[in-house]
Design a protein that fits this description.
Largest sheet: 9 strands, mixed
Shape: globular
Radius of gyration: 24 Å
């Protein structure tokens, strides 16, 4: 029997496991370093980290980015507070697990034809809506069709453009039939627009009532202000440990953090990073800092002057000192962007593409070539986009002066930002949540006909590659296609990407979670309400 060399280390990692502060991999590494055998460490992990969470209590969450214009229509979801809410009261075919893997939700299993043009999803026969109705294949068909067809106004319409038919197989399963293969389709079903809603007799869905089949049922709704929910006793998965959940929209970061410190809420989204060190000293507060593929973008309308000139677009991209931005604005809690929407957290990452650096001299040369010397442009931003968004724009404006660019930063109200500014003004700042694969991101925001093509970029070769890569089953070939697409977006596209931000949020010390946190959205993939507990 191996003698434990450092009992103190073992005690500390066990305590961390019980608090949900350490992953299984780190637990095993530390335990082995302390002299334990692999089998002993595995048993200790099981007995400490896998203890059954406690049930009960009311979880109060302070969430950013909520608007009075929000709606229960899944096709219109856009703000983070709604994304948090819908993962609390609605369900999807699949979900992203805390460790980043793909897991079951309303679908228990799925399989594809050899060419990936047909995918069949078998449904959980225990899933029920809050109204008491059982979830059927007909509900799934109607819910997905809500985003399809000529009359659909859904923001996710482009994601299903290749789907030719969705069939109820009559055996509690559905099959999606596509014009071309899509190896990522089960991942695509996690997109937050594709919530499962009850079907109406005419094939539409009842989204207006707020009925869902998620872990909690809606009791009170005041869009952009407050939502109150109670546990759904018919929830078909594990979790939903709290009796009740209240989501309070607190767009102001100071108000969110004050509410957390005073105990008026149990957890908050998106911390003000410049006060992070102060919060870390509070013994009643726990900070979660999760690297992610969530991008900050600054899209320029490629069909509106002066951004219709590629040299002007690249001059602007060269005028940001991203290292300084990351250091001073997000205090290192980010990965530097390279002006294509594909992060190291995604598969097929093209790590050999040269990083675009701050180069005001080259920017000046490009502006001269474009006949745009003395360029003056307006950049719109709101405080709610991310913690430090306005400060970043002010810093960028100072950096761009060296290139001879006058950036006029326009600070606009947070309420209505994504309905009144984004996709309407030729240059603004946007925060994108993490998507699981490059195909999902490119299909949403770069595809020629995508509703959310935020830079109005049109590139024939890019769209050709996007179609090819979607159905390519050879990983090496697919990786090369995504590399070429990244280069096209970087050198011709209209989107400046300063960085991919970490998700940094906080909770009271009595709020517990498991050792892993999903990096798809803030708050454990926006599922804190169903995955966390009081302890």
């Amino acid at each position: 029997m191996t003698k434990i060399k450092d009992q103190g280390l073992v005690d500390r990692v066990v305590a961390a496991a019980r608090e949900g502060k350490i992953s299984r991999r780190s637990f095993m590494n530390y335990s082995l370093a302390a002299g334990m055998t692999t089998s002993a460490a595995t048993g200790l992990w099981s007995s400490s980290a896998q203890a059954q969470p406690s049930r009960g209590g009311r979880f109060r969450l302070g969430a950013h980015d909520g608007n009075t214009s929000d709606s229960h229509d899944p096709g219109t979801y856009v703000t983070y507070s709604m994304i948090m809410l819908i993962h609390t009261f609605r369900s999807y075919l699949t979900l992203i697990e805390p460790d980043g893997s793909l897991g079951p939700d309303v679908a228990t299993e799925w399989s594809a034809s050899p060419d990936a043009t047909e995918w069949t999803f078998r449904l959980n026969d225990r899933a029920t809506f809050h109204s008491g109705k059982k979830v059927t294949a007909n509900d799934v068909v109607a819910s997905l069709n809500h985003h399809r067809g000529d009359d659909s106004t859904s923001a996710a319409k482009a994601l299903l453009s290749d789907v030719e038919d969705i069939v109820d197989n009559g055996d509690h399963s559905v099959t999606l039939k596509m014009a071309t293969g899509n190896a990522d389709l089960p991942w695509l079903m996690t997109d937050y627009h594709f919530a499962i809603c009850p079907a109406n007799d005419d094939g539409s869905i009842d989204w207006q009532s707020g009925d869902g089949c998620g872990p909690y049922r809606l009791v009170e709704t005041e869009f952009g202000v407050r939502y109150h929910l109670q546990r759904h006793d018919g929830w078909h998965l594990d979790g939903a440990y709290f009796d009740e959940v209240t989501i309070i929209v607190l767009n102001d970061p100071n108000a969110r953090q004050t509410a957390l410190v005073t105990g008026d809420v149990d957890a908050v989204t998106q911390l003000e990073l410049k006060t992070l060190a102060l919060l870390e000293r509070d013994p009643n507060i726990e900070i979660d800092n999760v690297p992610s593929a969530s991008a900050i973008t600054m899209p320029m309308f490629c069909d509106v002057a002066p951004f219709d000139n590629v040299d002007v677009r690249n001059a602007i991209k060269l005028s940001m000192n991203r290292d300084e931005v990351i250091e001073k604005i997000v205090f290192g809690a980010a990965t530097k962007g390279n002006d294509f929407h594909h992060s190291p957290a995604m598969p097929y990452w093209p790590d050999d593409i040269p990083q675009r650096e701050y180069d005001p001299d080259q920017a000046k040369s490009l502006l001269k070539k474009a006949g745009a010397e003395g360029l003056s442009v307006e950049l719109k931003v709101a405080d709610s986009v991310f913690s430090g968004a306005v400060d970043m724009c002010v810093l960028f404006a100072e950096q761009a002066k060296a290139s001879g660019i006058d950036i006029k930063v326009s600070r606009v109200p947070s309420d209505g930002y994504y309905s009144d500014v984004w996709l309407k003004d030729p240059w603004c700042v946007v925060q994108w949540g993490a998507r699981p694969t490059p195909d999902v991101m490119y299909s949403l925001a770069y595809k020629a006909d995508a509703s959310w093509n935020e830079s109005h970029w049109q590139n024939e070769r890019f769209n050709e590659l996007l179609l090819q890569a979607k159905s390519e089953l050879d990983d090496a070939e697919r990786a090369e296609m995504y590399r070429e697409m990244a280069m096209l977006a970087r050198n011709d596209g209209g989107t400046l990407i300063p960085f991919f931000s970490n998700f940094v949020y906080a909770r009271r010390s009595n709020v517990k979670h498991g050792p892993d946190l999903a990096a798809s959205w803030q708050m454990d993939g926006a599922r804190a309400a169903s995955r966390w507990w009081f302890g």
